[in-house]
Design brief:
heterodimer, A: 80 residues, mainly alpha, Non-ribosomal Peptide Synthetase Peptidyl Carrier Protein, Chain A, 61% helix, 0% strand, globular, B: 354 residues, alpha+beta, Aminopeptidase, nine-stranded mixed sheet, 11 helices
């Protein structure tokens, strides 16, 4: 996992989900964080797209089940 | 496993049925059952899509292809209809709602959604966040028979104290007086229109003449109207007046959760050059009053129709009937205010729940 990208994801997720960034681990997901519901998930995806400057493809969104997987998808896009 | 969004075919029916069963225990999703046939046959131009994970259905949506008149030009537009996702009951699928709307936008960038219940519901919140133009289509109502309205209107009779106040208002005449002071007593019994059994062919010149008066209106030629309001369906009353027409419903409610047992008249749909709106509304209202409606309701976005309703004694109430236009559709409407768009209960799903 790309640590700088994960740190940026964690920062954005903490802001969107209104939680302490330290509580977000690579395994954090909508199932483990109460405030990560479908509306906040949308807000998170759109905030990440704004921050990194691209729109996620459908197959990337399929993979984005945890904070760590989100960072992996962004890292893969940046090296592509 | 990756999720694919594909056209709904007969081979998916069993999986759709299982999907509906998984949603059913959630009371808020009772009305969000996906059709258990790929050809529900409700309205022309419908296309259905399902989100598949392996052989399991995890969601779906519908597009209804229509022609709109936008600033006088004919433009293809789609209604984005009944998007439903397993994300509503299982957060593993939280991404699916966004995937569904993006899939629909890829098929047709000019989308609209209508109804949706409330700005607080997840779908309008998502569409607003995605930059869709949003507004509520104003709700207009006229109480024709105050006593029956006050005694029956369950939407207001929600607590013992409210029921006591409404009963007191009904039996003392205070409710009648109050509603009359608000303008509800102004009857237009003598205003009449000509009834019609179908729209063919006389509605075509009305459409051609009226469309230029609206920044946006869904096509309302005779073929479209006879498909929406079939001549064989006795529920629909077609009234011609001035240079236009209206479609009415006159429904005797029975133990309705909002209306109780009153008779509700609805001005479902209408069209005329905007300057003729008041003539059409007077004829429609007079027709429903003569038939014995206790309450008459209508949702109308265009300012001319709102003013016509006000002139006939209607007042505005809170509206949860929302209109949303995708960014590509909103760009075509950039010069137009909400009050220049002709949207009513004849649009979208048509006159359901009435």
């Amino acid at each position: 996992m790309n640590q700088p990208i994960f740190d940026r994801v964690r920062e954005i997720a903490a802001d969107v989900l209104q939680i302490d960034r330290a509580s977000i681990t690579p395994d954090s997901s909508p199932e483990t964080i109460e405030s990560w519901d479908s509306v906040q998930n949308l807000n998170l995806v759109l905030a990440l797209e704004e921050a990194f400057g691209f729109e996620f493809a459908p197959e990337e969104m399929d993979q984005m089940k945890t904070a760590g997987k989100i960072a992996d998808a962004i890292a893969a896009r940046q090296t592509a | 496993m990756p999720i694919r969004i594909v056209p709904y075919t007969a081979e998916h029916v069993a999986a759709v049925r299982e999907f509906n069963q998984r949603l059913l225990p959630e009371p808020a999703l009772e009305e969000f059952q996906f059709p258990e046939t790929p050809d529900p046959g409700w309205l022309p131009g419908m296309e259905l899509f399902v989100a598949l994970e392996g052989n399991a259905v995890r969601g779906g949506y519908m597009l209804r292809r229509q022609q709109f008149s936008i600033s006088g030009e004919t433009v293809p537009v789609c209604q984005y209809r009944l998007p439903v996702s397993e994300g509503a009951i299982d957060r593993v699928y939280a991404m699916l709602g966004l995937r569904l709307v993006r899939d629909a936008l890829a098929r047709e960038p000019r989308l609209y959604a209508l109804g949706m219940g409330s700005f607080q519901h997840p779908l309008p919140q998502m569409l607003k966040r995605l930059g869709w133009r949003m507004c509520a289509v104003p709700f207009h109502f006229k109480v024709v028979h105050p006593f029956r309205f006050l005694r029956e209107i369950r939407a207001l009779r929600t607590t013992p104290a409210r029921r006591w106040i409404l009963d007191a208002a009904a039996y003392t005449g205070a409710g009648w007086l109050g509603l009359r002071l608000m303008g509800h007593g102004r009857r237009v019994l003598r205003a009449k229109g000509e009834t019609a059994g179908s729209f063919t062919p006389w509605a075509d010149p009305v459409w051609e003449q009226a469309r230029a008066g609206y920044a946006m209106a869904a096509e309302r030629d005779s073929a479209t109207l006879d498909a929406l309001y079939p001549p064989t369906d006795p529920r629909f009353l077609r009234i011609r007046a001035g240079g236009g027409w209206a479609v009415l419903l006159d429904t005797a409610m029975e133990d309705h959760r909002q209306f109780g047992n009153i008779r509700v008249g609805t001005i479902v749909d209408c069209l005329a050059p905007p300057e003729d709106a008041v003539t059409v509304v007077r004829a429609a209202t007079g027709t429903l009053e003569r038939r014995g409606a206790d309450l008459i309701v209508s949702n109308q976005l265009h300012a001319a129709w709102g003013q016509a309703l006000a002139a006939c004694g209607f007042r505005r109430g809170p509206s949860n009937f929302l209109f949303a236009a995708s960014p590509a559709l909103a760009a075509l409407l950039a010069e137009a205010g909400d009050g220049e768009l002709h949207i009513n209960r004849g649009d979208g799903d048509g006159p359901i729940h009435l």
